[in-house]
Amino acid sequence: MKKWFFVLIAALVTLVGCSEKEDKEETNSLKKVSVVLDWTPNTNHTGLYVAKKLGYFEEQGLDVDIILPGDAGADQLVASGKAQFGVSYQEGITQARVQGVPLVSIAAIIQHNTSGFASIASKGITSPKDYEGKTYGGWGSPIEQAVLQSLMQKEQADIKKLDIVNAGDLDFFTMMQKDIDFAWIYYAWTGIEAELRGETLNMQYLTDYSEQLDYYTPVLATNEKMIKDNPDVVKAFVAATTKGYEYAIEQPNEAADILLEAVPDLDKALVHKSQEWLANKYQDDAAQWGEQKLAVWENYAEWMTKNNVLEGKFNAEQAFTNDFLPTKGAN
């Protein structure tokens, strides 16, 4: 009896050892890739964290690291091949491509532009006409002045009467405490934070002033070499990420908890309220999450050219693709 008992134990130990070995081999068989965020983690990125936490990446055979950009931005890391994927913007990819940098957008994270110029209500700024005599706090990009000028011209306002300063890394609320009157924000984060603070904002959304400013921001990007050499990996990454954002659309509360678990320093109330606000913005009126339209890429490039922030020939068809979405969307 004892002999059979020990034989059984030995067999079980062998089975456990084999199982552990198989699990290790399965882990080692996952393709390791990285995705670089554009900024500190926030609800624009929730789908990535959901895909990682719920095993969607593993289901697709991927071991994905979500990393911060550091001194080198996501575009630079992805273009150089130091990272396989990154969170980018249509404007950045457009400018990169005319300079010969082979970045490609593979999915729109948010279907429509939710950014705009914001100010505390007490500043009395209710339209671009009111920018005259005010101070704008930005980050020093030529595109800022072009957008401001475009909006002000529509209201017969003179941009020469606007003071534009580089506010660096100052957050919106710190700027509002200084001699700065308004700034460019994403409502999903800063706007929601204002609500939680009990501050009323006046917003001029870019999409309210020009259809051409309804561009994709942010997007997921990779480079042409990755698409050529590892299309299956790109397809797997997009499939898992799509599932992550679809979960965030359907279950924003649970998705917010997943983001908070991964990044516990984030404000819980802000994450939950922001996630709720964004849930129906990710896909919005598109046939599926991630879909991009050729007209959006062409229209914004035309606007950039007309406003002297894009020099060179831009081929919109090469700048993005829907080919890796689980169901290919129409261009």
Instruction: Give unreliable regions as ranges.
Output: 1-27
Mean of the pLDDT scores?
Answer: 91
Estimate the global geometry from the Cα principal axes.
globular
Number of domains: 2
Q: Largest beta sheet, briefly?
A: 5 strands, mixed
User: Distance N terminus to C terminus?
Assistant: 72 Å
Q: SS-based structural class? A: alpha/beta
Largest sheet: spatial strand order: 2-1-3-10-4
Radius of gyration: 23 Å
Q: Could you name the CATH topology of the largest domain?
A: D-Maltodextrin-Binding Protein, domain 2
**Fraction of residues in β-strands:** 15-25%
Architecture overview:
With 331 residues, this protein is of the alpha/beta class. The protein contains 14 helices and ten strands. It has a five-stranded mixed sheet, sandwiched between helices. A five-stranded mixed sheet has the order 7-6-8-5-9. Strand 6, helix 6 and strand 7 form a beta-alpha-beta unit. The chain is globular, with a radius of gyration of 23 Å. The N terminus is likely disordered.
Summed up, what is this model?
The protein has 331 residues and is α/β, with parallel strands linked by helices.
Any descriptors?
single chain; alpha/beta; D-Maltodextrin-Binding Protein, domain 2; 2 domains; five-stranded mixed beta sheet
